[in-house]
Write a structure and sequence with these properties.
Number of strands: 0
Radius of gyration: 22 Å
Helix content: over 70%
CATH class of the largest domain: Mainly Alpha
Largest sheet: none
CATH superfamily of the largest domain: Tetracycline Repressor, domain 2
Number of helices: 10
Structural class: mainly alpha
Number of domains: 2
Order of helices and strands: HHHHHHHHHH
Distance between the termini: 93 Å
Strand content: under 5%
């Protein structure tokens, strides 16, 4: 088979797959997970139901594929944010701010049955591990430079950052998100002094 013909077929398949994923996610958001059928998705996408079944066995598989693509896209955004900053502090601030904005924008999904379904699966666990490692590496780099505290392990500090920023999903504005990131970063500063109790007479 000529290469051009092969590329054309692959492009067509990718476009069909992308259209199916986007259509399914939109239908679930509009009508609810239990109301969406493979027939609806096929009709809205403009393909035959038999064709749809060649790509996916059921609605849950479609939504899982859609979410996996979203997760990969978000990780790529975080890595891009990291690579555009100059030092460890700026890189971590950029990553945490990007992560918090994603959480803020995802607020509408968080309380739905779609959100519950999508946050299951190996791809989510793998992405969480990658995210934690990304943040740990930046914290470790900053601690070596004296920018971040070194009396707590990078793993624990990464855990602190990620859980603190889950609050971004409930904040009313991006300015509030930025303030939350600032407060979270403040918790990473090295202790400037040790409290020593002064004996009283």
């Amino acid at each position: 088979m000529p290469k051009l013909w092969t590329e054309t077929i692959e492009t067509h398949r990718r476009e069909v797959r992308d259209a199916v994923l986007a259509t399914a996610a939109a239908l679930v958001e509009k009508h609810g997970l239990l109301s969406v059928t493979m027939s609806q998705i096929a009709e809205e996408t403009g393909i035959g139901r038999a064709t749809l079944y060649k790509y996916f066995p059921d609605v849950e598989a479609i939504l899982g594929a859609w979410h996996e693509r979203q997760v990969k896209h978000h990780l790529a955004q975080l890595i891009e944010a990291r690579d555009h900053a100059e030092n460890a502090h700026e890189r971590l601030e950029a990553v945490l701010h990007a992560y918090a904005l994603i959480a803020h924008q995802r607020h509408d999904h968080a309380s739905t049955e779609l959100g519950t379904l999508l946050h299951r699966g190996e791809h989510v666990t793998h992405a969480q591990q990658q995210l934690s490692t990304l943040i740990q590496d930046l914290i470790n780099e900053g601690a070596a430079a004296g920018t971040f505290r070194d009396d707590v392990t990078p793993e624990e500090l990464a855990f602190y950052c990620l859980h603190a920023l889950t609050a971004a999903s409930s904040l009313p504005s991006q300015e509030a998100v930025r303030r939350l990131v600032t407060v979270t970063l403040a918790g990473l500063r090295p202790p400037t002094s040790r409290f020593v109790a002064t004996p009283t007479a």
